[in-house]
Amino acid sequence: MSENVILVTGATGVLGREVLERVRRTGLPVRAMTRRATLPEDPGVTWVTADLQTGAGLDAAFDGVATIIHCASDTRKPKHDIPGWRHLLDAAKRAGVGHIVNISIVGVDRIPYSYYKIKVAGERLLAESGIPWTNLRATQFPDLLNRAFGVLSKAPFVLVPSRTVCQPVDQGEVADRLVELAQDAPAGRVADMGGPHIYRAADLARSWLKAVGRRRWVLPVRVPGKAGAGFRAGGLVTRENAVGVRTWEEYLAAKAPR
After folding, report:
1. Is the N end or the C end of the chain the one with fewer CB atoms within 10 Å?
2. What percent of the chain has pLDDT over 90?
3. Alpha-carbon distance 127 to 104, whole Å?
4. In terms of Cα–Cα distance, which of 32, 92, 19 is closest to 58?
């Protein structure tokens, strides 16, 4: 292979955008994949149209690619991720891709939540594919918490899981780590990545409401079943891997109305 091309899936998403910018800074040739037919004009990046769910366009997209950083996920219809994984892996084998770097979530193997089960299944498909791989699990991204609280605060009460702690980690810092891993040798599952501080979910909601200037009651509710038990047992955090630097408070200060 003549060039060390890095391809980013999910390049228009919260994390994918951050990863794409950091790959650009390395000076390596970078490709960005999207399902959109109309491609952005983006100096320094080659945009390609392909669809993981159907497999359409993947062979052309992966041609000449050395490394894939896989950030794509269908959170609205997570079952689509499994055929997406199969199409990605089959096309990567045909193209001779030498390394797939995957982003996953802390707690997917400890909390039997439906989306997390899909993430674990994807990790398993990658590990069994025969393609050299690296898998990083991270805690919650502030931008995703911001979006979630924005939706929840449309009601008179902001509902949060009771007795549950979270550990927001800056998505830009996770992107830095993914790009670092993409330039190293495949390493299998690497150490998890969490933010610098751990917070009760209710406290995150209250601080968000204060920062954006909204008045709502925060109502902790008990999530039933094994998934709720996993939340309450601390399954969403990685205390031993609190390596993030940017705090939730710093994120909110940047988001607060001026």
Report:
1. C
2. 91
3. 13
4. 92
